[in-house]
Amino acid sequence: VFQMEDSELILDILDGAPRNWHTILTTRLYKDAEELQSDIRHHEMTLMDLDLDSRTGPSGTGYHSYRPTARVNLVGTRSDLPPPSFPRDDSTVSKKTTPRDKGACPCRHCGSDLHWDNECKHLTRRTARTRLAETRIEDLQAQDEYDDLY
User: Fold this and answer.
1) CA quadruple 133, 137, 140, 141: dihedral, nearest 10
2) Where are stretches of biased composition, namely Basic and acidic residues (predicted)?
């Protein structure tokens, strides 16, 4: 049978304890395992609360920290876009970023990739935009993603 020194036993016990317990239980304060056991009993409720807080997170809702993952969608991948209703107009250029910079579809009114749909001078001359019952879900999603880019 292997006999451990009290200091080794204390370190071994605290190695298996949750990390946040080390804020309350300090290894250098205990001369033997009985003192550690007595201190654990004395701080029992506090240690249990610390353990619960670490599992549930700050809001107490079962929150677990995780690394967020990016969600990437291909924008403007509709293959059956109708041709623009007006001639190409590259005189209007977006001040910030252009559809060309973002890799998005060109303006649906004139076909220019230098400005967004809502910046086109032909915008006021367009017909009303409607969502018909025959519209495919993919088309609506592509349009919503395009609108979100601006």
Assistant:
1) 160
2) 87-103
Domain residues for 147? 71-150
Q: Please give the structure tokens belonging to residue 44.
A: 């029992």
Q: Out of 21-30, 52-61, 91-100, which region has the weakest mean confidence (pLDDT)?
A: 52-61
Report which secondary-structure segment, H or E, holds 9: helix 6-15
- pLDDT value at 130 more than 70: no
Three-state DSSP at 78 gives coil
For residues 127 and 131, give the distance between their C-alpha atoms in angstroms, rounded to a whole number.
13
Question: Of the candidates 1, 39, 2, 64, which has an alpha carbon nearest to the alpha carbon of residue 14?
Answer: 39
Mean pLDDT of 94-118: 89
Rg (CA), the chain: 32
Q: 83 with 134, same domain?
A: yes
In 44-135, which ranges are E strands?
none
Spatial distance between the Cα atoms of 33 and 7, rounded to a whole number of angstroms = 8
Name residues whose C-beta falls within 8 Å of residue 46's C-beta, 6 or more positions apart in sequence.
24
State how many domains the chain has: 2
Lowest mean pLDDT among 34-43, 100-109, 117-126, 139-148: 117-126
